[in-house]
Design goal:
The structure holds two protein chains of two kinds. By secondary structure, chain A is of the alpha/beta class. Chain A has a single domain (about 5-210), classed as Glutaconate Coenzyme A-transferase. Chain A has five helices and 13 strands. Chain A has helices spanning about 5-15, 30, 85-95, 130-135, 195-200, and strands at about 20-25, 45, 50-55, 75-80, 100, 105-110, 115, 140, 155, 170, 175-180, 185-190, 205-210. The two termini of chain A are about 15 Å apart. In chain B, about 55% of the residues are buried. Chains A and B meet through α3 and α4 of A and α4, α5 and α6 of B.
Chain lengths: ~220, ~230
């Protein structure tokens, strides 16, 4: 992982508050857990039926029956509970998740999220993503600020099929922390060594920049 | 009184699957996937199947054997991301794929098993997953109608069973298994251990044998059940 991505993940880890029930999506969000203190009081949920995820295990120590939704071999901790898939999503749809962190192809200025399908290129199915995005109390996105070709992932409107409408509250990127507010994107923090002008340039929608000095991460 | 004995071999049980059947398969990734029953189904060779499973496993594992054998016409699923072969068959039109949001698939199966016709949900409103679904206003809110889902046969994997077909699962191998156990006309469970009656404590049973028609003890587990080396 590049230094900028690593800093993004470290910063995102500070979003988890003691006592929360949290679902970390596949990919970068899963790495957030590596930056929490071992005794941090949080309950991590995974869609395939576990509340209270313990550390990821190497394959020689893995339990063949114990994975997370991304297929990683995980473990339990004291107090963990298993349940079936209907119960797992009852938990999600009834709003028991305080926070979910998800990846993104595109985020729109109104909080629309597209992260499951690129027509003609990538269509593996939505899995549990729609329910996480639509029903978690707070949805945060972890993503690089631009795609590999340098195009902005933060846009006025999503062009790809939506995962959920107006669901994203905060975006952590390798350049900035940006909130989705009623009037669009607002810059909250900047990455070290990145100027506000560079962030504006890499963002595909209007970005409100407060007059005050912004924290760096 | 004594509870009936439903023990069977895997080979005897699998003949209940007929051409054109809808077959539910337990499992999320490897855990809970009935690999031995799937192998037996490939040998049995029932064709034109509609398969209901969370995912399509990985290439050369589980569901992929059914796909490679050309037995599957339609797949009702949530995510195929780990099986490029399945995605290829979908993209070339060789199988018809219906994607469901994961919890909606689980709940449709639960509803089917609970004797319901369906349920109301707002999941997917404003996305392409809502297209074609009936919309209902209820209590001032807008919902989609999600129809219940049942199958002709369900193939399940349990950790432990008894001769009546009571089942218990371990860890994340539970997933869709107890839901599918309720939602098919014929329910076949493979189990890593099958005990005489009383071998499972009544409080430790996850699926009542009432839902199960045939229970088969697994022999030595194939490599498919093992930790996946990536």
């Amino acid at each position: 992982m590049s230094n900028a991505k690593e800093r993004m993940v470290v910063r995102a880890a500070r979003e988890l508050q003691p006592g929360m029930v949290v679902n970390l999506g596949i990919g970068l969000p899963t790495k957030v857990v590596n930056h929490l203190p071992a005794d941090f009081p949080v309950c991590l949920h995974t869609e395939n039926g576990l509340a209270g995820i313990g550390p990821t295990l190497p394959s020689d120590q893995a339990n063949r029956n114990l994975i997370d939704a991304g297929g990683a071999y995980v473990s339990t901790i004291p107090g963990s509970a298993f349940f079936d898939s209907a119960t797992s999503f009852a938990l999600v749809r009834s709003g028991r998740l305080d926070l979910t962190m998800l990846g993104a192809f595109e985020v729109a200025a109104n909080g629309d999220l597209a992260n499951w399908k690129i027509p003609g290129k990538f269509s593996p199915g939505v899995g549990g993503g729609i329910e996480l995005a639509q029903k978690a109390q707070r949805v945060a996105v972890l993503t690089t600020h631009t795609d590999r070709a340098g195009n902005p992932k933060l846009k006025e409107r999503c062009s790809l099929p939506l995962t959920a409408q107006a669901c994203v509250a905060r975006i952590f990127t390798d350049m900035a922390v940006i909130d989705v507010e009623a009037n669009g994107f607002t810059l909250v923090e900047t990455a070290q060594g990145v100027s506000v002008a560079e962030i504006i340039d890499a963002t595909g929608a209007a970005l409100r920049v407060p007059d005050t000095e912004l924290p760096k991460f | 009184m004594k509870l009936p004995d439903k023990q069977s071999s895997i080979e005897e049980a699998i003949i209940h699957v007929k051409d054109g059947d809808t077959v539910m398969l337990g499992g999320f990734g490897v855990p809970g996937t009935p690999f031995a029953l799937i192998r037996a189904l490939v040998q049995h060779g029932a064709r034109n199947l509609t398969i209901v499973k969370n995912d399509a496993n990985e290439p050369n594992m589980g569901v992929d054997h059914l796909l490679q054998s050309g037995l599957v016409a339609r797949l009702i699923t949530t995510h195929l991301g780990l099986n490029a072969h399945a995605i290829g068959l979908m993209n070339s039109g060789q199988i018809d794929v219906e994607f469901n949001a994961q919890g909606i698939l689980a709940e449709r199966i639960r509803a089917g098993g609970a004797g319901l016709g369906g349920f109301l949900s707002d999941i997917g409103i404003g996305t392409e997953l809502a297209e074609g679904k009936q919309v209902i206003e209820q209590g001032g809110k807008t919902y989609l109608v999600e129809p219940a889902l049942r199958a002709d046969v369900a193939l399940l994997h349990a950790d432990r069973a008894d001769s009546f077909g009571n089942l218990a699962y371990v860890a994340t191998a539970r997933n869709f298994n107890p839901l599918m156990a309720m939602a098919a006309d014929c329910v076949i469970a493979e189990a890593e251990a099958v005990f005489p009656l009383g071998g499972l404590a009544a409080d430790d049973i996850h699926t009542s044998g009432v839902f199960v028609d045939h229970v088969a003890k697994l022999g030595a587990l194939s490599k498919e059940y093992a930790v996946v080396q990536r």
